[in-house]
Structure to design on (451 residues):
């Protein structure tokens, strides 16, 4: 026959194992939830370092249908691609704040930018950038002009820009502005003058 | 080897259709590769065909009116029920009436709520050699009416011999498009409307090889119901018709 004190010890050990198991399972679930939450909130591209610079952003204002230069302090890396991406993201950040001068859909971001030649840049945006963009000729043109003008002002040497949406070509931004063409920055500069 | 129906169907699908459209001066041809519809895609039924498809080429000057959007493409949403595609269709019918009253023939690219791709709109306009193409839009923000002339995103794209690149098919008609836009703007101003003139890269204007403009109606004083106002739509349609009539009388059949 098993002594009583030995039975009690085994029961306590089993109880301790059970409680530890429950605690471990709950902690694992909590960790997964936190990881998922942070990945949803994270930008499409990782944050980069760099030197803080005082740059000019061409910001769209829906209220008076205008584009205006605004100063901003932005961390810009030396690498040309990263510099271009961070410049564009700093423009989008203006539109994603509340209240916004030119509201864009939640999740609008720059996934990637890359040069296909010395002077031609392709900008790949998130799907939310186009899917959530308000439809309208003026609203769409203001967005593109704001991005392209800010890009060329802060990243020298770009003469043509093409936009992709989630890695693919799309006919228009939200039903109006042309996304199939390569935008010549000089032509966009002339167009932007009409709104300044 | 024995061919069955599905085999023939697949063979037909393998062919890439080339759509040809001559420019209005008859000197250039616009070519565009078109992917054929999949076998599983049902053939469009009669009501879903574009209003002008199948019509014979008109020998005389006519205006191609494009009520933008349609079908699943609602365009700008103003309220739950008020969407751009419905406003543009009503305005298009009004414009047709006003043009007819001035003896100018016109055609609508869609008469009902159908899907019609941007490329198809340009193809029909080029194929039928319209005298002027007018795209109608409605949007925010602002007040009054905005008149857009096309602007090429890449004006320096080289010409491929006698062929126009699809993305810049408008290049040969840009000056005349600006003339039409200016004439329409003048007429809108005469009616006391606030008018903004802009040049922007828009589809399908840049794929159209004839003079082309876009007219965008905006809510008056943020009153969304003004977009549906019969009087306002009639005023805008009258001004567009007068602008086109004026430029046509100045330059003959070709603006």
């Amino acid at each position: 026959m098993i002594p009583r004190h030995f039975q009690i010890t085994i029961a306590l050990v089993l109880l301790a194992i059970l409680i530890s198991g429950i605690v471990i399972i709950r902690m694992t679930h909590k960790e997964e939830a936190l990881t998922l939450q942070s990945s949803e909130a994270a930008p499409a591209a990782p944050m980069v370092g760099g030197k803080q610079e005082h740059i000019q952003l061409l910001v769209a204002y829906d209220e008076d249908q205008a584009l205006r230069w605004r100063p901003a302090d932005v961390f810009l890396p030396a690498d040309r691609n990263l510099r271009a991406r961070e410049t564009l993201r700093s423009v989008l950040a203006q539109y994603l704040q509340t209240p916004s001068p030119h509201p864009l859909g939640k999740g609008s971001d720059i996934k990637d930018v890359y040069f296909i030649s010395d002077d031609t840049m392709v900008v790949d945006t998130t799907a939310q950038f186009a899917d959530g963009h308000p439809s309208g000729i003026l609203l769409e043109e203001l967005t593109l002009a704001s991005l392209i003008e800010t890009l060329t002002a802060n990243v020298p040497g770009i003469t043509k820009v093409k936009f992709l949406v989630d890695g693919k070509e799309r006919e228009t931004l939200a039903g109006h502005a042309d996304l199939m063409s390569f935008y010549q920055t000089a032509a966009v500069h002339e167009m932007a003058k009409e709104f300044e | 080897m024995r061919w069955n129906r599905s085999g023939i169907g697949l063979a037909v699908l393998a062919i890439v259709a080339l759509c040809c459209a001559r420019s209005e001066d008859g000197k250039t041809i616009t070519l565009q590769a078109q992917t054929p519809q999949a076998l599983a895609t049902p053939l469009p039924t009669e009501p879903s065909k574009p209003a002008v498809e199948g019509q014979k080429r008109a020998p005389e000057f006519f205006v191609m009116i494009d009520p933008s959007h349609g079908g699943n493409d609602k365009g700008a949403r103003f309220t739950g029920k008020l969407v751009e595609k419905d406003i543009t269709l009503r305005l298009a019918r009004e414009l047709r009436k006003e043009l007819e009253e001035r003896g100018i023939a016109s055609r609508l690219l869609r008469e009902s709520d159908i899907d019609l791709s941007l490329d198809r709109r340009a193809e029909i306009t080029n194929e039928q050699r319209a005298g002027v193409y007018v795209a109608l839009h409605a949007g925010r923000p602002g007040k009054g009416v905005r008149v857009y002339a096309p602007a090429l995103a890449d004006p320096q794209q080289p010409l491929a011999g006698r062929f126009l690149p699809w993305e810049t098919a408008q290049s040969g008609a840009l000056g005349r498009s600006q003339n039409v836009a200016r004439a329409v703007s003048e007429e809108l101003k005469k009616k006391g409307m606030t008018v903004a003139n802009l040049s922007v890269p828009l589809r399908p204007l840049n794929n159209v090889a004839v003079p082309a403009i876009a007219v965008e109606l905006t809510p008056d004083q943020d009153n969304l119901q003004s977009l549906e106002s019969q009087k306002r739509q009639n005023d805008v349609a009258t001004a567009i018709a007068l602008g086109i009539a004026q430029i046509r009388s100045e330059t003959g059949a070709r603006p």
